[in-house]
Amino acid sequence: MDSRILSCVTSTLVALFSLAAMVQHPARSAIGRHGSHWIGTWAAAPQPFYPKRLETFQNQTLRLIVHTSVGGRKVRIRLSNTYGDHSLLIGGAHIARRRSVAEIDPASDRTLTFQGRPSATVPARSMMVSDPVELDVPALSDLSISIFFPENTQATTTHVLAQQTNYVSPANGNHASDGKFPVAKKIDSWPFLTGVDVEVAVRRAAIVAFGSSLTDGDGTTTDANHRWPDVLAQRLQDRSETKTISVLNEGIIGNRLLRDSPQEPGLPFGASLGQSGLERFDRDVLRQPGVRYVIVGLGINDILMPGSLTPAAEKVSADNLISGYRQLIARAHRRGVRVIGTTNPPAENAFLALSKSGPPITFYTPGKERVRQKVNEWILTSKEFDGVVDFDTVLRDPEHPTQLFPAYDSGDHLHPNDSGCKAEGDAVPLALFTSQ
């Protein structure tokens, strides 16, 4: 059997078994009692660990900080063991409003349970949703989710690029309810935590920002919530007619639309760049509670990586990417989800420095630029998306359109800084979400 066909069959079987093993799934309980509804207020895409940074916890508590988009009076969390080969033991978990750094408001502290129990075991290749608890969750606020791991636990499922400082306790027991959290170490990832949902009295809508590191916030200030989806969430909360719309960030650093993370020996990232957009679309977009819109920001890595960070044989054409976009559009429309396309930003002189001593990896070639231009032209003119945001025009240098505008450059000539992300978030027309 052809290796690609075998890989596809294997991944499909794994997905089916994972679904069968799920203890709960948010899509199955989107409508609560008395007409209430669940909607995601925060999310992060699960991905395999970065090989050089596999975190291990034993008799330790994690305090993970997340920033909400919409508010609610009841809350639950989602934990993922999607890439774990062994079951995941949760010794205890709490949620609270954050006061500052790793400290919480003790009056807001709530014990989380799982099917009525304070501890839980998440099966391998599966996920779990906590029982809901009463908690006033303000929009655009910080929550603390504390999880205790009594046994040796490897964070094989994580979100690598949090752009958020999170905290690890000493290996001396359960600190999930501590108001002043004892910090032994800081991390900049979100192990196992993939979602926070709130219950609302009236039906609301979630926007999923589905992309790569450009969506994930690479290049923005840590702990500042300046990713472009954060900017969009703030704008939605500033208007009374859009306060009911949440924004969920499902970006993954290095992610591609058409191919999974490269597995060839010698490449630095292993599987950590995630499954392809086509592969993870159902899990990370269509199964989000309350989803009605998806903003697609994938494609630039498919164009740039081959011959630089991945084998040259993985080179894509504009037609390849257009076919991928069409698949996403068709799948979303079957579920009643509207799809908003975004153009791919400029990348001339873009580089990646893997070490301080070695030469950087460069990406740009005139041939890749021609593919980018052709894909962007199709996105802008085909009218196959339900709406389009022209991030290319927003971010490019008017004097040199194949390059990032210097004032928006985080330093690698590809990822926008805080100012660039604000320009992107401000460029998304809110009418896309109020006209239907």
Salient structural properties:
disordered N terminus; 7-stranded antiparallel β-sheet; 28% strand; 2 domains; 5-stranded antiparallel β-sheet; 27 strands; alpha+beta; 436 residues; Rossmann fold
SSE layout and pairing:
Blueprint: H1 3-21, E1 37-43, E2 47-48, E3 56-57, E4 60-67, E5 72-81, E6 88-90, E7 92-100, E8 103-104, E9 110-112, E10 120-122, E11 126-129, E12 133-137, E13 142-149, E14 153-154, E15 157-158, E16 166-168, E17 185-187, E18 193-200, E19 205-211, H2 213-216, H3 228-237, E20 245-249, H4 277-286, E21 291-297, H5 300-304, H6 318-334, E22 338-342, E23 351-352, E24 361-362, H7 366-381, E25 387-389, H8 391-395, E26 396-397, E27 400-404, H9 418-427
Parallel strand pairs: 19-20, 19-21, 21-22, 22-25
Antiparallel strand pairs: 1-18, 2-15, 3-14, 4-13, 4-16, 5-11, 5-12, 5-18, 6-10, 7-8, 7-9, 7-13, 16-17, 23-24, 26-27
Helix pairs in contact: 3-9, 6-7
